[in-house]
Amino acid sequence: MDVLAGLDACTTMEPDEGRVAAARDRLVTPEEATQLAELFRLLGDPTRAQLLYALLEAGELCVCDLTETVEVSDTAVSHALRLLRTAGIVASRRAGRMIYYRLADVHVRMLLDLSREHLRHG
Amino acid sequence: MDVLAGLDACTTMEPDEGRVAAARDRLVTPEEATQLAELFRLLGDPTRAQLLYALLEAGELCVCDLTETVEVSDTAVSHALRLLRTAGIVASRRAGRMIYYRLADVHVRMLLDLSREHLRHG
DNA sequence: CAAACTCCTGAACAGGTGCTCAAATGATAA
DNA sequence: TTATCATTTGAGCACCTGTTCAGGAGTTTG
Question: Which chain B residue is nearest to residue A68, measuring alpha carbons?
Fold first, then answer.
């Protein structure tokens, strides 16, 4: 594989506005990388990951249901959910004295789904 | 949205081997969730994330090039790369006294790519 | 009202993480 | 060989993280 394959392309092709724009879109600044790391960091804990995959399967679960899916106290689950909620990874809804959590958006679902595929067929 | 939408389906439809098998494939055990968390944890550090996105853009880079993309010492970069290499996230190749690193497989590239999209259009 | 239930908050602490420094390894050049 | 370059390794340490415990807040039930 050519070490500089991507960078050498300009010696064999004329500049192209479309490709240039696409390359600029691909660039990730240190600030963006840090934001992405923050997202991954939140997914990168066994307790939180189990909660998220439980929500991926069930759609929506209350804290007491989620507590049964992991081996920690309900307090630890609550702390974990607060981190995920603050980061916009999950959303919550009150119904009586129970609070139901769900994955916040389709991107999070795709991320969890793709990662599961990576684990099994990577 | 119905809280138990997924679970109630069996009251309105006959069992279906295809759907049952698909549901079983979707289930993530605590052990799998923990493995996935380990993957996310490794992506969840600003230094490592910057290195990975640099590799995503450039294809292949030596340690000295990678050191220029982050604000830490070459030693810290080496420690970070060892973690990623041990986990099978990056692969390395020696050429003279330089060692070139690249992303290990297409799944990692897709994961980084999808996450970048999440950050920008989520 | 009080009791019961679900969930959240703050404090404290053991354990883990990522950094730098100093030293070592492997490879090329003089 | 000796010197130099690129990278790795191990030690030490400041900082961060996730947990439990104790207590509080909001909601329904008797």
Answer: B30
pLDDT score of A13: 58
Q: Which residue is nearest to nucleotide C5 (CA to C1')?
A: A97
- Looking at beta carbons, which residues of chain A come within 8 Å of B91? none
Q: Is the pLDDT of residue A14 over 70?
A: no
For residues B55 and B63, the answer to whether their CB atoms sit within 8 Å is: no
- The alpha carbon dihedral of B23, B24, B29, B31 has a sign of negative
Span A62-98, pLDDT tens digits: 999 999 999 999 999 999 999 999 999 999 999 999 9
Give me the CATH topology for the region B30-121: Arc Repressor Mutant, subunit A (1.10.10)
Find the closest chain B residue to A41 by CA distance: B44
| CATH class, range A44-121 | mainly alpha
CB contacts, 8 Å: A69 with chain B: 30
Q: Give residue limits of the domains in chain A.
A: 44-121
**Is residue B32 over pLDDT 80?**
yes
Q: Give the H/E segment covering residue A109.
A: helix A106-121
